[in-house]
Amino acid sequence: MKRMEMLEGLFHSPGFWLALFPLGFVIGLLAACEDAVPGPEVAVEEEAAAAAPMREERIETDIPDVELVDQHGRTHRFYSDLIQGKLVLMNAIYTSCAGTCPMQTSIFSSVQKHLGDRVGQDVQMISVSLDPLNDKPSRLKMFAEKYGAKPGWIFLTGDKEDVRIALEAMDLYAPNPEDHTPICALGNDDTGVWMKLINLSSPDEIVSRLHYVAQLDPASFRRD
Amino acid sequence: MLVALWILCQSLLGVDDDALARGRAIYRTGEGIEAVLPGGERVDARQLACIQCHRSDGRGGWEAGVVVPNIRPERLGASYGVRDGLGHWRPRYTREKLASAIREGQSSAGERLHAVMPRYVLGGEELEALLDYLAILGTGPVPGVTAETIRIATVLPKEAGGGSGSVGSVLKAFFAEINARGGVHGRRIDWSPLDEIGGTDDVLALVANGGAAASPDRLEAFERRDVPVIGPLTFDPRPRDADGIFYVLAPLDVQVRGAVAAIRDESERATLIVGESAECERLEDVLRREAERLGLTLTDEPEAGARVIVLGDAELFARVAEEIEGPRFVAWTVLLGGRVPDPVGGLDRVMPPLAEGLSSDGESVSFRQVADRLELEPQHRTMCLAAYAAARVLVAGLEKAGRELDRGKLVMALTELSRLETGVSPGLTYGRFDRLGVEGALIVRTDGTGRVIGARFREVESR
Residue B345 — pLDDT band, cuts 50, 70, 90? Predict the structure, then answer.
């Protein structure tokens, strides 16, 4: 059914988002920094943020079926090849990032180990480049190898516009890669439930949230 | 004088070279230690080496929503502390407090550092070595840079004519023209040829090294000395992420894959003829894997109308050219021994992607402007083009790095070059983990008389 709708309109039927942020943690509010380099005028008290109660909120979304290219040069349809019928863990990174991407990717690497054989079977891990003009497949491949990516964890690039469409739908897009946020998206395509989580959370936390999303009954949430 | 004083200071401080080298290696590669992720899990610190965020010069920056602090000693050790980007004051980092930041993630103000800064697990000796290196990070005299000049050198083999050979002449003429146009950020490029690797301590960078000075061992020696090398003249690049060696030539295996892709653009079948050498065997393996990936069927015997790929030396190439008539074939000959044969009619040749007109000249000094005044030896033309492209990359990096210049800033600027058009190569792109400027091969097509009738660059998209 989703497939039919996708073929007709390039989008599958709306799922919904469950945003899960510690209160007070706003995107990009980072760094107990040490220097007077111009940057965001916001701070995060990490301990306080971690202790804050969770806020759950539904956000509707559509997932486009644009064509993107993986680190091996293979073309995939974003929804029908990579997301349809799967549990998905996704983030947005770029290989020349000197900010959060190394840590985000290292955490994903650890999550991959925790999930073991499930990655590539019912779980799909996806890292989409925010810098498709420079992140050629070969560069993504080197990056993927550095972090020990195995089958089931795919790194995507492609046409700049297609990448924008895909990432905007997942609320992971930043027009300027340097402004991106350390957020990952977790979703269960079968139920249409998606969740966003800080991608600097511990690997255990991400795995546990993925299990939570996997078993969440969408009927328990009323649409706004 | 400054260098002597610097060395004296180091010896008085009791910092030995081995410890500094070990500290530098930890900072740049993360080798041999572990990093701790949020939640406490340990991973190989090569995934999270200091240099990835704090950069080679320790200045850090702002990226992806994070202010990465400047960790140069003058900043960490400021007597009265500093205010951070959020306006919070923190006291001076002593050696002990810095150790605590690295191992326990605690700032000098006693606050917990952000989760994006890993905690590191490292032994006492490793910690001391890293602290030694951090104590000099980005300090000391800047080699090769004065108020008026930037010293660049090229190590050229004597057998290739040294500085007076074709490659040396091209570089000399190019930099003379750059200087005639005002130099870079008000500084003149002081280029000189060297015939050995000694004497590189007072250059900012090396460009277009040839012969043994472009070999993996020598390049590693330059890397250990922190001397960036741009465009070493080698057909066997061995790029490593995050080092200071930037290539303008594609490796042989990339060119072989370019050849396979070019044939696959035209045909579903090809005959493969391979010479007898270890290098041929290695490249045959690359070729077969790429052919399988792209769906190109390889046969042992020539078929009517099929393309023939010759992987071997000039002798094999010539033999095949005599024996096979009819089908167009693609041959790789240049580096597997022997001289390149004169153009043979009806053949395609696979070459490194260097040729005039492959991209725009831009506003810089063109190869034509340089070469027209020189009598270049035809057999050195490819190397001349490669040296010219390397010099263009260097100048683009210097322009991007700005007036406040050192080796670390140059390397960082080079990693940010994207689709740099040199006029003689496809657009060159480097990155944080990417030291190969180009991936693909030049396919040169000749007519029945051997006249070159066209050339096209075939990029390969995956490794």
Answer: low
Q: What share of chain A is helix, strand, coil (3-state, %, to 5)?
A: 30, 25, 45
Report the alpha-carbon distance of residue A167 to residue A184 in Å, rounded. 11
Report the residue of chain A nearest B61, measured CA to CA: A37
**Furthest-apart CA pair in chain A: how many Å?**
54
Q: Which residues of A touch B41 (CB under 8 A)?
A: 110, 202-204
- DSSP 8-state symbol, A62: -
Q: What is the spatial distance between Cα B277 and Cα B106, in angstroms, rounded to a whole number?
A: 57
* Cβ within 8 Å, pair B64-A32: no
Amino acid letter, A19: A
CA distance B59 to chain A (A): 9
The answer, yes or no, to whether residue B84 has pLDDT greater than 60, is: yes
Among A residues 20-49, those touching chain B with beta carbons less than 8 Å apart? 27-41, 43-44, 46-47
Question: Which residues share a beta bridge with A187?
Answer: A88, A194
B107 CB neighbours in chain A (<8 A) are 32, 34
| Reported ipTM | 0.71
φ, ψ dihedrals at B98, nearest 5°: -70, -40
pLDDT tens digits, B144-183: 999 999 999 999 877 666 667 889 999 999 999 999 999 9
Do B116 and A182 lie within an 8 Å CB cutoff? yes
Residue of A nearest to B93 (CA): A34
In degrees, rounded to 5, the angle at the alpha carbon of residue A22 between the alpha carbons of residues A17 and A26 is 80
Instruction: For A125-139, write each residue's pLDDT tens digit.
Output: 999 999 998 888 888
Residues in B closer than 8 angstroms to A204, CB to CB, are 39, 41
